[in-house]
Write a structure and sequence with these properties.
14 strands; alpha/beta; binds pyridoxal-5'-phosphate; globular; 12 helices; about 40% helix
């Protein structure tokens, strides 16, 4: 058992939410670089550098490139889904949580021809069902899925879905927003055509830039699909960034500075090494939480490297737990939708040390001990 005296509480606020994350000081310092006009060569170079590094992180070679957007992850996601499904095509959405539902919402808003296989919250996607659906519906041309379903902490089998998609000649759109740089993902090896990510989760940048990485050939083919939105059109964004070497609209310039630095730090650390660092932190957190007596939502084989959903301790509501832990300097995250009353989440993305994770576990233990003492007293 650990006590308050043995473990030092952190000096800084530790974000255990799935982005924005605790960032490296060098990333924060990059925000204060000198003012820059986005139509000058310096910005062209910065943007191109960032696009190239993002492609590298996704595992793309020179036949791939990335298109960057100013906006949170959902901006690049909506841009992708609304840009790549032609009127003659049909999108199959695989859903098993909040972010799968978001894919459906986007498809509905843009009136895309689509269907959904909904496994239900926290239920694994079944490959045999996907295969059977594609066998019976040969009008499906694209599949969309979430790699890491952040609402439950479940890692979905992107490689296997990629194999099925290839077998049926379908393109694959992957929401890799919370998995890229936190889970092993290889745009080529996993047969992904559209890989969507964001700056402020496992890449450890600041919020404001999101992106999609894709084969150039697929990007060029978008010329034949009329834009459904003006601002979030992948093709026009790609044409401006690639041909004119300038974004069509004012970008979040300072966020690009920070992202450039965050990508250097990521590539220095190595994507594989970062995944392993996160994995170890998650294992440390899970072992500690279970030792205190908390129960985790998912069985071990379905858990991601970066997020753990935990049942709320009996007799304690989320707000109380959140506020108590906040006093120790830790920000935890609520359950979403159907899990709101039942579970909470902690993420371990970002610059969190093992000592800080130990301090969190100690804060949790003290919070639970205090609440059960309070319950005993009030009997
Ligand atoms: C965070 C996240 C998003 C995007 O959220 P934004 O708030 O728009 O950045 C989308 N999908 C998944 C799986 C996520 O974790």
């Amino acid at each position: 058992m650990t006590t308050e005296r043995e473990i030092a509480m952190p000096e800084r606020t530790i974000l255990l939410n799935p982005g924005p994350v605790v960032i490296d000081r060098r990333v924060r310092d990059a925000l204060a670089l000198p003012d820059m006009c986005h139509r000058e060569p310096e910005f062209s170079e910065l943007m191109t550098r960032v696009r190239d590094k993002l492609t590298l992180v996704c595992g793309g070679d020179i036949s791939y490139t990335s298109v960057v957007f100013t906006g949170s992850g959902t901006a690049a996601l909506e841009a992708t889904i609304s840009s790549v499904v032609p009127d003659s095509g049909k999108l199959l959405i695989l859903s098993n949580g909040h972010y799968g539902e978001r894919l459906q919402k986007i498809a509905r808003i843009h009136k895309l021809n689509h269907a959904t296989i909904d496994a239900g919250w926290a239920a694994p996607l079944e490959l045999s069902k996907i295969d059977a659906y594609l066998r019976d519906h040969n009008d499906v041309t694209l599949i969309a899925m979430v790699h890491h379903e952040t609402s439950t902490g479940m890692l979905n089998p992107v490689h296997q879905v990629g194999e099925v998609a290839s077998r049926y000649g379908c393109s694959l759109i992957v929401d890799a927003i919370s998995s890229l740089a936190g889970e092993i993902l290889d745009i080529r090896g996993d047969s992904i055509d559209w890989c969507v990510g964001t700056a402020n989760k496992c890449i450890e940048g600041v919020p404001g830039v999101s992106f999609v990485c894709a084969p150039r050939k697929k990007l060029d083919e978008l010329a034949s699909i009329p834009a459904r939105t003006m601002y979030l059109s992948i093709y026009s964004q790609y044409a401006a960034e690639d041909r004119d070497k300038a974004p069509p609209f004012t970008p979040a310039v300072q966020t690009f500075f920070a992202l450039d630095t965050a990508l250097d730090l990521l590539l220095d650390e190595g994507v594989g090494a970062r995944c392993k660092r996160y994995r170890n932190l998650a294992l440390q957190a899970r072992a500690g939480l279970e030792k205190i007596g908390l129960r985790l939502l998912l069985p071990p084989e379905l858990r991601s490297n970066t997020l753990t959903a935990i049942y709320l301790p009996p007799g304690m509501d989320y707000r109380t737990l959140h506020d108590e832990l906040r006093r120790f300097g830790f920000v935890i995250y609520a359950g979403q939708d159907t899990l709101k009353q039942k579970a909470f989440r902690i993420a371990n993305m970002g610059q969190i040390t093992t000592a800080e994770m130990d301090a969190f576990l100690s804060a949790m233990e003290q919070t639970l001990a205090k609440s059960s003492a309070a319950r005993v007293q009030s009997r």
